[in-house]
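Why do we bother with a discrete structure alphabet at all? Because it lets us treat a fold like text: something you can write down, compare, and reason about line by line. To make this less abstract, here is a complete entry for Amino acid/amide ABC transporter ATP-binding protein 2, HAAT family. Read it the way you would read a sentence in a foreign language you are learning: slowly, and without expecting to understand everything at once.
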Amino acid sequence: MLSLNMVNLSIQRVPILRDVSLEIGTGATCGLIGRNGAGKTTLMRAIMGALPLEQGSIQYDGVDLHDAKPHERAALGIGYLPEDRRLVPHFSVEENIMVSLWATGNKETRRVKWVYDLMPEIGRFADRKALTLSGGQQKLVALARALVAGSNLLLLDEPFEGVAPALAQRLMEVIADLKAENLSVLISESDYTHSEKLVDQVYSIERGEISLMTASSASAA
């Protein structure tokens, strides 16, 4: 489904990603574990096309994404939940969820209904402005928006960061339910606290370099 091969990326001439290679199979849920500043967010943004590569390639379902713009990647079925949510404060919850459809020119709303069925609590405050929600509720809305676009691949950057335990548990339940949808998912975390029971394999990232973790080393992380 997703393959990165020897990706290198610098920001303001500072190397951030160094020869990064990883693969996520169809229907697999993968963890990306690394401390703050290790390169997790940069890697997610590179996959979405928000940052240009210096070297290497990113392929999605056999298609080279090198020249694809972010909205074109979303149109391919890639959804992205940024660490800082990036909701439009004065938009309603439903308007924020619809943003990805508007950006790609997609007029099909069946997936919005599916998201409401998956997370009924979202439907209960669909008319509220995003700025009136708690941080945890905003994470749920950002996840809903990512799910509307991410019919094939979902990128979740620190989805549990700054979320109350009850809402973190709810997020974990929703992500676990996605296995039945055959979605490929990449989840980044600073440690292995929340994603341990969700993932099929784990990559570790440290100073922009990535490695596949074994089951024993992942459990110790």
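What the structure line is telling us, in plain words: The chain has one domain: 2-220. Residues 135-149 form the longest helix (15 residues).
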